[in-house]
Each structure stands twice: as C-alpha cells, then as structure tokens.
Amino acid sequence: MRSQDNNNTVRLSLVAAGFIVFLLAAAAAGCTGTDRLDGGEVVVAVTIPPEEEFVERVGGDHVRVILLVPPGADPHTYEPPPGTLADVAGADMYAVVGSGIEFELAWREKIAALNPGMLVVDCSRGVDLITTGDAEHGGTDPHIWTSPKNAKVMVEEIREGLIAVDPENAEDYRRNADVYLGELDALDAEIADALAASGVKTIMVYHSSWAYLARDYGFTEVPIESEGKEPSPQRLEHLIKQAEEEKIKVIFASPEHSTRSAEVIADAIGGTVVTVSPLAKDYLANMQRVASAFAESGRP
Q1: Number of helices followed by number of strands (H, E) in the chain
Q2: pLDDT in tens, the chain (300 residues)
Q3: Is 274 in contact with 204 (CB distance < 8 Å)?
Q4: DSSP label at residue 110
Q5: 3-state DSSP call for residue 32?
C-alpha cells in the first residue's frame, strides 16, 4: 500500500511540475488570444482529433490547430505534456467538446485561467445530452461527436467561435461551414439508409462510445466495460448469454482500449472482434467505416 501511495505522490508531483512549467511558459510568452495580429492565423486548441477536422474544414487556411489529446491516446485518462499546454497560452480559441469528457473536466478551467483572453467555445451547446450514472463523466455520456447529427451542432459552434475571434474572415468561415455541413447531411442520410437496410438492432462494444449514434439511428449499444472497470465473471456470463440470444456475432472494440474481454466473449460465441475508433481524425471517412461495420454485423 505504501508503494502505491508513493507512486501516486510521484505522479501528482509530476503533474504539478508540468503545470508550473506551463504557467512559467505562459508568463514568459506574455501573449493571449487577444494578441493575435490582424491578418495572422487564428490558433485554435481542440481536445480530440475529430474536432481537428471540424476546425480545419471551417477555418481553412486561416487557422492553425493545437490538438491536446493525440491519436491513440485515451481522453478519459490522458495528461498533456507541458510543451503542449504552453502552446495553448498563445491560442485565440479553445473548442471544448463540453459534454463531460474527463480530459476537459481535469484541464479546462486550468487552461482557461492561464489564457484569459482566449475564447472558450462549448461545442455541446444545443446537443441533447444522454445522462448516465457515471460520476466520472459528470453524469453525461461525453461521446457526442459519434453521431453526425451532433457533429453538425459542433461545427456550427466552431463557425460562430471563429467569426467572433476573426470577423474579418467571417464570410470564408460561413462558406466553408456550409460546404462541410452539406457533407455531414449526406453522411447522415448514408448512415441512416445503411443501418436501416441491415436490420441491425443491437451492437456489443467493449467501451461505450456509440450511444448517440445508437439513439439517432435506432439501435441499441451494449457495453462490456462498466464505469471504466473490466466485467466480472458473472457479467461476462450474462453478456455471452445475451449475445447468443440476440445472435450477435461481432464484438466491437477500439484501438484506445484493451480487447481482452471482447475476445473472451467472441471466442465463447464463435464470433469475431472488429476494431472501430471513435477518435479518428478523418471524421467523414471514419464514420462511413463505422456505419458499414455496424450494418454488416446485423446481416445474417
């Protein structure tokens, strides 16, 4: 127990040291979002890779994006290095997911306090959040971006944020957003048709990431993991029985999490494990892949 306490102390000390480095870097830089030179690029911080695509598509050549949680990292547990945080000291805008993702619960206020001139845009504003019993997520499911319907709301919020910090290029932002929103509309229709035609009713996943997609397109997500914990033997037995009863043959996992429990269930039912990521940057193409995989799992 003492060794674990010591490890926790060291970990907290490293986090505190990193935060101090960030504070000193911000002070040395002496700049905030209000210091952007007219005609210069707009620096926008985002939490996850899908938002990176959203900002780049709306902002075009006018923006530079700082990604806080890199590809392959888990935004539920990731801690940014001091260098990344120091970069945010010069950002004009931070587009937060806003739905209770752990990274933002831990870092949003600290980042905002160290860059008071930065506009913080809540991309979840206007999204009908799914409530959960998970206190770690702030009582809501944070994965709003995994439904194209919600992605449209996020893009609209990003558009308005960019116009606020850079009104000179407002027409470009509106035009770019309109084009991308049209592509999201097409993606929405494509996913709806594919899932309806497949007849898929239930998907079983290791980590609950697709509840918004399930709600918006009429199927059910059954998670294996519960509140960040591996399933008990009794829970595994129940999931295997459910998979057999509902003729589920594909168990979905993500590259950001372990596949062990998914493989146990797949082996028991004679099925397979398919990996899909909710965090890929190439949002349009990735959501097409995800919808195709879900649809295929529903076919006899």
Answers
A1: 10, 8
A2: 334 444 443 344 444 444 544 444 444 444 444 455 456 899 999 999 999 999 999 999 999 999 999 998 889 889 999 899 889 999 999 999 999 999 999 999 999 998 999 999 999 999 999 998 766 655 899 999 999 999 999 999 999 999 999 999 999 999 999 999 999 999 999 999 999 999 999 999 999 999 999 999 999 999 999 877 889 999 999 999 999 999 999 999 998 888 899 999 999 999 999 999 999 999 999 999 999 999 999 887
A3: no
A4: H
A5: coil
Spatial contact of 96 and 115, defined as CB atoms under 8 Å apart: no
Q: In what order do the strands lie in the sheet with 42-46?
A: 63-67, 42-46, 93-96, 119-122
Q: Would you say the C-alpha torsion 16, 20, 25, 27 has a positive or negative sign? A: positive
Q: Indicate the pairing of strand 250-253 with strand 93-96.
A: unpaired
Q: What is the pTM of this model?
A: 0.86
Tokens of 293: 């995989």
Residues whose CB is less than 8 angstroms from the CB of residue 143 and which lie 6 or more positions away in sequence, other chains included: 99, 208, 209, 210, 211, 212, 278
- As to burial, measured by CB atoms within 10 angstroms (0-12 exposed, 13-18 middle, 19+ buried), residue 250 is buried
